[in-house]
Amino acid sequence: MAVNGAYLAMQIRQRVLGPVLSFSECIFRDVLPPFENLDRRADKIADDYYNRIGSQPAGEDEDVDMASVAEAAQDHSLSWFQMMVSVRQSMLNLLASGLYHLAEQQLADSCRDGSFTVRPPRDTKLEIVADWYRDHFGLDLRTLPSWAVFDELRLVANAVKHGEGPATRQLREIRVQLFSNPDYAEIYREFEEAGIPPTLGPVFVPLSGEGLFVSEKLLKVYAEGAESFFREIAQHFESNAETYYPH
Predict the structure, then answer these.
(1) What pLDDT, on the 0 to 100 scale, is given for residue 217?
(2) 93: closest CA among 227, 209, 220, 217?
(3) How many CB atoms lie within 10 A of CB 22?
(4) Are 169 and 48 a contacting pair, CB within 8 Å?
(5) To which H or E segment does residue 244 belong?
(6) Around Cβ 163, how many Cβ atoms within 10 Å?
(7) Cα–Cα distance between 87 and 81 in angstroms, integer?
(8) Closest C-alpha to 159, from 92, 230, 226
(9) Which of 9, 48, 193, 217 has CB 3.0 to 4.6 Å from 234, enough for a Cys bridge?
(10) How far apart are CA 116 and CA 194, in angstroms?
(11) In degrees rounded to 5, what are phi and psi of residue 119?
(12) Separation CA 207–CA 96 (nearest Å)
């Protein structure tokens, strides 16, 4: 049994795209906000530590050295800040990877409608599913306007998962800023102004927030790109509403 383009467009918009949109919404509404204003929160942690330790009664023969308390408070807040920055970067990297793999799985699932008379792709990998779309839906996903962003997200997901390897080498060619620690942005800028390209080390532990630095801004670009990718697929089927698939 075959189905027409109108049916497939509805399936893409309602069943396939929905989980991707929900995941993206959750990222920016629920997951990332607790990591905002880390510098101000670190200052408060230092103040609370200073006030708590400073208010404790000293022994009979000793005075509280408030200068030492202040130094300890700063060390305490700095340790917390560094930990939270690392956790936040780990989350950004992991969320980018999760977004891609969810979208990849949803795309592959769109090929498994019970009414289709052809076998679904043998794997969920993007290149395999893209070939299946071309062969059975007459749509070359690689020609879609959002393909470049979606495929870049694929490279990011692979870099997060595997560390140094083919994906990271390709990413250095198209998005080198992913490998620059934002904490050292000023230092990088000084090197560039001096005509000295900064040395970027290999990516060994991206899930620890090191070596690969997906920003919140770039994650939004990827989320919007994944949404556009599916909307463009739906638009293709809407433009061929009376055509029956798979061929």
Answers:
(1) 96
(2) 209
(3) 11
(4) no
(5) strand 244-245
(6) 18
(7) 10
(8) 92
(9) 9
(10) 60
(11) -70, 145
(12) 11
Could you tell me the two tokens for 232?
Answer: 């463009």
Structure tokens at 68: 């030492």
Domain residue spans in the chain? 3-245
Distance CA 195, CA 198 (A): 9
Nearest CA-CA partner of 158 in 147, 148, 166, 150: 166
Residue 212 three-state SS: coil
User: Which three-class secondary structure state does DSSP give residue 61?
Assistant: coil
Render pLDDT for 142-186 as a digit per residue (tens, 0 to 9): 999 999 999 999 999 999 999 999 999 999 999 999 999 887 766
- Strands 244-245 and 3-4: what pairing? antiparallel
In terms of Cα–Cα distance, which of 185, 178, 189, 187 is closest to 215?
178
Place of tokens 């700063």: 74
pTM of the model: 0.91
